[in-house]
Write a structure and sequence with these properties.
The complex is a heterotrimer of chains A (336), B (327) and C (304). Chain A has 336 residues and is of the alpha/beta class. Chain A has 12 helices and 12 strands. In chain B, a hairpin with a 5-residue loop joins strand 1 and strand 2. Chain B contains 11 helices and 12 strands. In chain B, 49% of the residues are buried. Chain B is globular and about 70 Å long. Classes of the chains: A alpha/beta (336), B alpha/beta (327), C mainly alpha (304).
């Protein structure tokens, strides 16, 4: 089944850098991945690992200066988005690929009603009358489970609660039935109860609209329920990628091990000491030449400081950038 | 052996009034941020305080530490009701009662060096001789895994986790007994959160500290606390030993809260039954009559519309404010 | 040369763990200066101001002419090697008078700005720090003052007090502190709610300590910027007052007086108006460039 399907989005060797006065920050350092139709992919990593920059690069929302996509290819249905002109890109943004941001308050215009902002998008991309637009928007708002959508249509963002705003943002992102929705930390600024509502909603919409979802988050637990494939990023690189079972049950990268055991689980029976990842991520102005995680890794070998590891495939669709998987390395056991 | 009680909060209320008018003399609505809560904290233990935004958990922390004047009720710390103390009398107590703030970026004065920051509490309370203070600061920094070379540096030169350690160092400088930690790790990355949480635990063991740990992250609270207080709109809904909160949550709100916390395991996560709460936390200006959780509660009964349930103990250490458990 | 087997030897990362990366320590002022240096316009402004101050202090000392020495044999002399800016209707050297005028104008600017700084910081600081009723009453008073045009207040004061340098200081000092007070109050109010101020409070710090140690040092940036931008305002205002005859009186000359005198013979001898006007403009521009540069350099939000 896999392999036959043509991916809807394919990212090849994407590199994005920021030219600041103190030096060049290599935020994304050459990543490859693809997203299949109707699939939900989670990109997980801590702040500064390049996950948000990846999302913005796909949307071509990196502004120069200081940011610049220095190389790579982002093809959506075979068209390389990085080669399009800005006006061609505008036609694609919102219509074929859209983004949900972390803070719904800053991504909605406070001076315009929710209805107006949603219609703007529809009128821009679809040729439909005012009447139809309004009908369609009410439909969208009720689809994201907003009660009394007729009222919300005429309301301003500040009149809605945080959860409602985030749902309106989702409605906005879905209004043109895009091929891909990139959700960047959509639940980070809301309470857990609202987070559960939103995740549930995304799950539901995925099956209904058949859009692909890229969920960007720092919280591994958030992707566990929604995503079928998980990409772990560290220091601008993909260090591990696999399906949910592979990454959660049989992770191969020591960084993924650390991430999984650093957060307490609400269902833990006995209190265990949290395992920590010592130190800090490397400075991306001068990233180390070897494995970026070597400095913090308890299993590091000499080679880890000398050469960046290649990807090792352990199973179909499961790849890891770690020297431990080289057959010359000693077998280590992940301490549970 | 039962530990002695170090802090007892009795019928604590903190209302904020929204003022308006030419000289802000007109008193408008009242926000009942904390509305009649009571609980006890034993020495050397950690009590977790969880709730959503607007539950009043931060206000509880700030009122206990007297950053806010309580509207009513008493806060008995080591036998003294500090709710009634004035700022001068309070100064002595402040040494023993410290706070860690949420935002490691905002809680350190950007214009002071680390040395100034850690020495300030010693200066205020006149601890140690002036020439010994630097030595003491060095000792505390070492204890927290910070390099004493960092003494001459400014807060903005540090990462979030390091700043939170500096904040801890400042609190420890006065040798406190009780620390209110208000979301101390929620601004940090997961790998750094674990470092800070472990530091909290080590310090507790070393100095027999007592913590009131405030957070919206139920998993984290459950991990660090001995018992947990669940708040909703200024009221306590449930108090339970942390071992029981997941196994036997009583209040429908606690149940929903626990079911909303995602678990980093696809097998568990995809098969879990999730209780979705309808709507958002309502405002604490116009509270509904009866139980304040009723509008979102799926078990709501007639009595819930009329009578506000009181917190009652169902078994040792486990109390709940819900009509479902009325004997 | 390490052989392949060795490459896969485990190493203890604790041993090789280098010091955590920390940026070089830069103090607040050093950092601000570094940022100011990057702003070319602000630097040019700063240099011009230094030159102007030097000229104002030393210029009249080294000049061969006295600012009030008349020479009726040499009235309206054109620009020449001996009189760089020419002479006026009484044969006084315009260059010397402009340099001397710089003393008066710059003094007005600095002193008026300083008076405003003191009143504004005290008033705004107290209002913001006390908060509540005190703040409300103090700010309503400021609102009232703000509602009356400053020009009107100053002109009325000048009419009552009469012309003269001291009275200009008083009038500008009374008229202009309102803006400073508002800025300081705003800063104080927001700093008072900052977590580091709350932290100091939980440590048991007294109000005075919080104000002196935490609030004022953190508000110093905007205070300096406002004070810097007040200087050209005051200079301009003095020039304006002098121009309409309410400024300093002859033979003392500020740039405003010189310009006012120059207007009379503007058509026959434009140099008499041109030079004082030029100096006023350059000074205004320089201070404004510097003020804008300082705003960017001192803003802590820009510190990364």
């Amino acid at each position: 089944m896999r392999g036959k399907m043509e991916p809807v989005l394919r990212v090849k060797d994407l590199k994005t850098e920021f030219f600041t006065y103190t030096g060049v920050v290599k935020a994304v350092r050459g990543i490859d991945f693809s997203v299949n139709p109707g699939e939900a992919v989670g990109i997980v990593g801590e702040s500064g690992c390049g996950k948000t920059v990846t999302g913005l690069s796909i949307m071509r929302l990196i502004t120069y200066p200081p940011g610049k996509i220095v190389s790579g290819e982002v093809s959506l249905d075979g068209t390389d988005l990085l080669k399009l002109s800005e006006s061609e890109m505008r036609k694609i943004r919102g219509a074929k690929i859209s983004m949900i941001f972390q803070d719904p308050m800053t991504s909605l215009n406070p001076a315009l009603t929710i209805g107006f902002q949603l219609s703007e998008m529809l009128i821009l991309h679809k040729n439909i009358t005012k009447e139809e637009t309004k009908k369609k928007i009410i439909e969208l708002l009720s689809m994201v489970r907003i009660k009394s959508p007729e009222n919300v249509f005429n309301q301003y963002p500040h009149q809605l609660s945080g959860g409602m705003r985030q749902r309106a943002m989702i409605a906005l992102a879905l209004s043109c039935e895009p091929k891909i929705v990139i959700a960047d930390e959509p639940t980070t600024s809301v309470d857990v109860t609202i987070q559960a509502q939103i995740l549930n909603l995304l799950q539901d919409l995925k099956s209904r609209v058949n859009s692909s979802i890229i969920l960007i988050t720092h919280n591994l637990a958030v992707v566990a329920g929604l995503c079928s494939r998980i990409i772990v990023m560290y220091a601008g690189l993909i260090v591990e990628e696999g399906n949910d079972r592979q990454v959660f049950d049989n992770p191969k990268h020591p960084y993924t091990w650390g991430l999984l055991r650093a957060v307490p689980r609400v269902d833990e029976q006995e209190k265990e000491r949290l395992s920590t990842i010592k130190g800090l991520p490397p400075d991306l102005m001068s990233p180390p030449k070897g494995c970026p995680f070597a400095m913090r890794c308890s299993y590091a070998m000499k080679i880890c400081f000398e050469e960046r590891p290649p990807y090792f495939n352990s199973e179909e669709g499961h790849r890891t950038m770690c020297w431990l998987l080289d057959k010359r390395a000693q077998k280590v056991k992940r301490d549970e | 052996m039962e530990n002695e009680i170090i802090l007892e909060v009795q019928s604590l209320k903190k209302y904020f009034s929204i003022k308006s008018g030419l000289f802000a003399s007109t008193v408008g609505d009242t926000v009942k941020a904390v509305d009649d809560i009571s609980f006890k904290v034993k020495k050397g233990e950690t009590v977790g305080l969880v709730g959503e935004t607007g539950s009043g958990k931060t206000t509880v922390g700030r009122t206990i530490i007297k950053l806010y004047e309580p509207t009513a009720g008493s806060i008995i710390f080591e036998g003294i009701d500090i709710a009634k103390l004035n700022e001068n009398e309070m100064k002595k107590v402040r040494r023993k009662l410290q706070m860690i703030f949420q935002d490691p970026y905002a809680s350190l004065d950007p214009r002071l060096t680390v040395e100034d920051i850690v020495k300030e509490p010693m200066e205020i309370h006149n601890l140690y001789k002036p020439n010994e203070r630097k030595e003491r600061a060095t000792y505390i920094l070492n204890l927290l895994g910070l390099d004493p070379e960092h003494l001459t540096r400014f807060p903005h030169e540090f990462s979030g986790g390091q700043r939170q350690r500096i904040g801890l160092a400042r609190a420890l400088a006065v040798e406190p007994e009780f620390i209110v930690a208000d979301e101390p790790v929620s601004a940090l990355d997961v790998s750094i959160q674990a470092q800070i949480i472990n530091t909290f635990e080590d310090l507790q063991e070393k100095f027999n500290l007592t913590y009131l740990f405030i957070s919206h992250d139920l998993a984290m609270v459950k991990h660090i606390s001995n018992s947990i207080i669940v708040m909703y709109l200024g009221r306590i809904m449930e108090i339970a030993p942390s071992g029981e909160i997941y196994k036997k949550p009583l209040h429908p709100y606690t149940q929903a809260l626990i079911s909303a916390v995602p678990i980093p395991d696809p097998k568990v996560e995809k098969s879990r039954e999730r209780i979705l709460l309808e709507g958002d936390i309502s405002s604490n200006i116009k509270l509904p009559k009866g139980c304040r959780f009723r509008p979102r509660c799926k078990y709501a009964m007639d009595i819930c519309k009329e009578v506000e349930p009181v917190l009652e103990e169902t078994e040792a250490g486990h109390s709940v404010a819900c009509h479902l458990y009325k004997k | 040369m390490i052989n392949e087997k060795e490459l896969f030897e485990p190493v203890k990362t604790e041993e090789i763990e280098a010091k955590e990366y920390i940026r070089p320590s830069i103090g607040y002022w050093a950092d601000a200066w570094r940022r100011l240096k990057k702003n070319k316009l602000a630097l040019i402004g700063l240099y011009i101001i230094i030159v102007l101050i030097a000229l104002a202090i030393f210029g009249p000392m080294v000049s061969v002419y006295e600012y009030d020495a008349t020479n009726l044999n040499n009235v309206y002399a054109p620009i020449s090697g001996s009189h760089w800016f020419g002479t006026d209707e009484l044969g006084r050297d315009v260059f010397t008078r402009v340099l001397y005028g710089a003393r008066i104008s710059l003094a007005v600017g600095f002193v008026a700005s300083f008076i405003n700084l003191i009143i504004g910081v005290l008033y705004g600081g107290i209002s913001g720090f006390m908060g509540g009723k005190v703040d409300n009453v103090m700010m309503r008073f400021v609102d009232i003052l703000y509602g009356v045009p400053i020009l009107l207040i100053v002109i009325l004061l000048m009419v009552v007090l009469g012309p003269g340098l001291t009275n200009i200081f008083i009038a500008l000092g009374i008229g202009y502190w309102v803006g400073m007070a508002r800025i300081v109050r705003g800063q104080t109010l927001s700093l008072k709610e900052q977590e580091f101020t709350l932290a100091a409070k939980t440590l048991g710090a007294s109000r005075t300590r919080i104000l002196v140690r935490h609030i004022i040092p953190n508000a110093i940036g905007p205070i300096i910027v406002t004070a810097t931008l007040l200087i050209p305002n005051a200079i301009f205002f003095e020039a304006f007052l002098s121009f309409i005859g309410l400024g300093v009186s002859a033979p003392v000359a500020s740039w405003g007086v010189l310009a006012s005198d120059g207007v009379r013979s503007f058509q026959s001898h434009p140099n008499l108006l041109f030079f004082p006007a030029l100096f006023i403009s350059i000074t205004m521009l320089s201070f404004n460039f510097l003020g804008d540069g300082l705003r960017d350099a001192l803003d802590p939000r820009q510190r990364k």
